[in-house]
């Protein structure tokens, strides 16, 4: 039977890369997009169809899931992410999906862990007891965060504001998460596994600033922000309290060095080394230079 793989959150950081990775495979791909117009860029891929999914409209899920054989499940960073995850798992089970690959987060199984991890762990446990064959991907912080969240201050001020001290993090390129996802979705021999995915090295934000300075030809400096100032900055951007608390908690453990572990899983599964931050920066240099 021909495989049809649904990717939820397809226009996000990881989803976008997963669609691209699957576009060269002999499978049908359904890009689950929040609104069809946002998925326009996927129309260049002959094996990719667009399907609208709005988690706030559960009836949209049935249309999206019907006929699907495998799912790459990405849930957004929202307060109801666990409910969304459970709803997606229920729908996959109902239509008889034979594999769910869930995007989780590094440290989701830590006890007591942090709130972000506990949300993912609750969804993981629901998946584990669902009866649907599954694989869990647990990546560390994405290199792309330096574009999505720090990009504006890097471009306009030459500064990276982060409350991370000299904490080192084994940042991963979302491209590598997608490369792993492609293998797991098309070879399906990782049933029941939880894969800890990291970049090839742990680096500090100071080192990130040095790399970005080199590739952009500008001086980019790291401003180590006190936690209280970080809280105020996020609150002034009208981020809700639950989100600010969760972000600060994550930053505390990264500052303390808990995000520095390195695994070889990307290389083992894809057959090539995980990308370094320098490679990521080179590939995305245009994102760090003012136009
Ligand atoms: N960032 C990190 O460093 C990191 C590290 C480890 C794990 N993670 C995990 O990665 C996941 C997020 O992945 P990501 O960064 O690739 O996502 P993302 O870039 O934030 O994108 C989220 C996607 O979900 C879609 N979406 C949001 N609300 C929706 C709704 N109501 N209905 C349908 N679609 C909706 C968005 O579409 P629209 O834009 O159109 O709304 C977008 O395509 C989270 O579970 C997070 O915990 C992140």
From TrEMBL:
InterPro entries: Ergot_Alk_Oxidoreductase, NAD(P)-bd_dom_sf, NmrA-like. SUPFAM superfamilies: NAD(P)-binding Rossmann-fold domains. Keywords: Oxidoreductase, Ubiquinone. It is an enzyme of class 1 (oxidoreductase). It holds the Pfam family NmrA. The keyword Methyltransferase does not apply. Residues 2-255 form the NmrA-like domain. The keyword Oxidoreductase applies. This is NADH:ubiquinone reductase (H(+)-translocating). Transmembrane segments: none annotated. One of its GO terms (molecular function) is oxidoreductase activity. Its EC number is 1.6.5.3. It comes from the Bacteria.
